[in-house]
Design a protein that fits this description.
16 helices, about 0% strand, mainly alpha, about 425 residues, single chain
Amino acid sequence: MPVPLAPCCWRRPVSESTATDTATPDRTVAGSGRRTLWGLIDQCLSSGSNFTAALLVVRSSSLEHVGAWSLAYASYLFSVGGFRAFAGRTYAIRFATADPERQRAGQSAVCGLALIAGLGVTACCAAASFVLPEPLRTTTLVLGVLCPALLLQDAWRFTLVARGRATQAALLDAIWITVEIPAFLLVFASGQRTAAWLFGAWSIGGAISGVAGVALTGVLPSCRNALRFARTHGDVSWPLLGEQILSQGANQLGVLALGALLPLGAIGQLRAGQLLLSPINLAQQATPLVALPEARRRRGATRAFTGYVTGIAASLGAVTLAVTIGWAAMPDRLGGAILHDGWHPASSLLPPLAIRNVGGGLLIAAAVGFQALERAGSSLRFGAARGAISLAGVLAGATAFGLNGAVWAMALADTTVGLVAFASFRRLTARGTSS
């Protein structure tokens, strides 16, 4: 049964000696390693589900339907990214080291926020369906119907990993995959290989997994306490949401803008190129989920904390280098067997996409450091800079040089801001400001 929300569960922490640090988590290297490993397994399952769906869409649909699927997926990413920033990361910052009662109370509120946000997305999708063309219209309606449950599933994942229970988060993602596979088989058997049917086959597993989270945790989402959560932790939530909207949100808006400026086939080409670098995206998506709670546990020791954040940047850079070299060395015959007609258009985008991911890794590492220190304002400033430069570059690049110009503009924006942000974080910790 859900734990009642006692008043103390909502008192904002004012120092490291207050209630947020009353728990005694396993702070040993082995304990941290286990949490990190299961967090990565969870992200592998989640990203594996997304990768499989995208690959099936690219291989089985026309570029027009791939473009429609990609735009609906971009809308989902925009929604889930905003929710993670406002509620998920706030939970990791304020509750990762809290006592179990406060953690369960916060979890109930975060899941309530997921339902509220999901219903908002449903309303937006319904309104947009009146003006969107097919096949994007139907695909957007599918997203609107299932979005509340999809955001709920992500809320369970983020809060469970923050609590050190990544094994349960991985189980929920395993449920998603277990439902997704037969759903895709049914779609293929029926011959309905359209963007809407394929998007539905992917998302129905997530929706069922979100509902299963209630049974797994014994915690009921609370919309009433969600509003209290937002008020109590707004000093962290709102800057993080602002950063998400201005940074990652600008990226997704850039994709939507490309859909207005370029043919759907160009969006399909971009999606195919991003698909090649999915292992990099997996590592980057796993980083805030896994690293932010761990960074919070290290923030009292400046040297260990700085080394941990630097290791994040180095690890993400190494993953980018390895994946890019692997695809660049891929024979055309094998690449064509994987992506069919999408191989040559996708491989032509590898250089700018790889450079963009290097800069993105630096920015992610710096953001984890800033947020672990509760310096959300610094994270917001760099997110705003990245968003403004990236969106302006995408619009200008696409207008002047088409898809290639837009992708190179995104690479330049992410690399520039990433370098400046990481240098700023290192200067901050060098001054001994770790509280």
